[in-house]
Amino acid sequence: MPSSRVLPPGLNRRYPVVVRADGVWIEDSSGRRYLDAMSGGSMAATLGHSRPDLVEAARRQAERLAYVHNERLTNPAQERLARELVGVAPEGFTRVRFVTGGAEANELALRLARSYHVERGEQQRWQVISPAQAYHGPTLETLALTGRPGLQRPFDPYLPRHLHIPPCTRQLDPTGEAALTALDDALAEAGPENVAAFFCEPISAAALPAYTPPERFWEGLAERRERHGFLVCFDEIVTGMGRTGSWFAACETPLVPDIIATAKGLGAGYTAIGATLCRQHVYDAVAQGSRRLTLGHTWDGAPLSCAVGLAVVHALRSEDLVTRARERGTALRAELEAALSGIEIVGEVRGHGFLLGVEYVDPRDGESFLPPDLGVAGRIDDVALESGLVVLSTQPTRDGYAGDQSLFAPPLTSTDDELAEMVRCFAAAVRRVALEAERELAALGAPMQAGEPR
Ligand SMILES: Cc1ncc(COP(=O)(O)O)c(C=O)c1O
Known about the structure:
There is one protein chain. This protein is α/β, with parallel strands linked by helices. 38% of the residues lie in helices and 16% in strands. It has helices at residues 39-43, 52-64, 76-88, 102-119, 140-144, 149-152, 177-190, 215-228, 264-267, 280-287, 303-318, 321-340, 376-386, 416-441; strands at residues 18-22, 25-28, 33-36, 93-99, 127-131, 163-165, 195-200, 231-236, 259-262, 274-279, 346-352, 355-360, 389-390, 392-394, 405-408. Strands 4-10-9-8-7-5-6 form a 7-stranded mixed sheet, with helices on both faces. A 4-stranded mixed sheet has the order 1-2-3-13. It has a 4-stranded antiparallel sheet with strand order 11-12-15-14, with helices on one face. It is globular. Bound molecules: pyridoxal-5'-phosphate.
């Protein structure tokens, strides 16, 4: 093959050239096969690869009407998909706008939150508060929603100044009380009358795999929303469309958000589509105000993408995959936990449906983060890939909120045998890297404390 003209994310990395895939198997140009425990690598391919029903839905729609722009024209696929989403969203969600991906859906959620306040005469509300240890996308506004300097550099001069609170994790704040105090401080710093929204992942994806705040945090957030009048936006880019065992994670949280952004599982890796959903009162602010919510992207609500989205919803329903994610996910987590037991760097295995997370710790005290320079998370991904398994781990960014962690998020359609093989390969990769890391740790100084920037 001629030398690549692609500008890849990592210039020192060798990228297998994937030429075909089927179900949970991916094949590269040399004929090597990989088990896909990450739904296409990004948690998007929730229904597995090469499904004839989704390909056929795209073909049929493309033959009839592939594209019209959303601003002056609508189309039946968009209208039907909006109705379907409203039907499976938490009660009270009545309107949907389609976009082409996760960051766009989050940006639209913010534009909608800001519009809500402006339409109601509260021009001054713009500031957003969000948990620092999060990922909401690579656009400049969504990057500003995380509080991780390690991710934001060198783009920080372009980022709006939003406020952040530490996550209420097992190590930093298991009850959620410290996060609520930090939220109060952030509200006081911004002036509560200037705050437009609290923005968070209800169940985290890569930033804190499968982690969700404790109930007390949600209750405290709900009280403050009531008191101060900001909106709550959920980033359900990963968790929406069944991944965590309900149609939306918001169906299970003690607090119903005002706006939800979703993306990956909506196109299931067959098309680029995202959606932002809002409750009636958010819609009413616009409907009773300027009646305009302008700005959009070229491919928003395109018939081709929406037809695929409709086929995805049909497959999730007809194969009862949301229930399967919930019920099989519980067993999968137990299987993963059993396979990883006895590996001293494994601190916690978490999970909701088919979104599972493994957190690694320094085995010398069983609780501190591993030194980031060991690169344990990245090594696990590399060893797994070498042995034919795709997983995705989070590299710590020296911000002090989280250490090395792995995500394990197979397609909801994976069979029991396929899941067993994924768990076996993953545990073997973790075990091998753990052995190497333990040897290297013996030569280093004291463990790092959680919350201590590195
Ligand atoms: C939780 C979360 N939000 C937002 C995004 C950004 O989505 P996209 O890459 O489609 O823009 C991602 C992508 O991984 C994500 O995991």
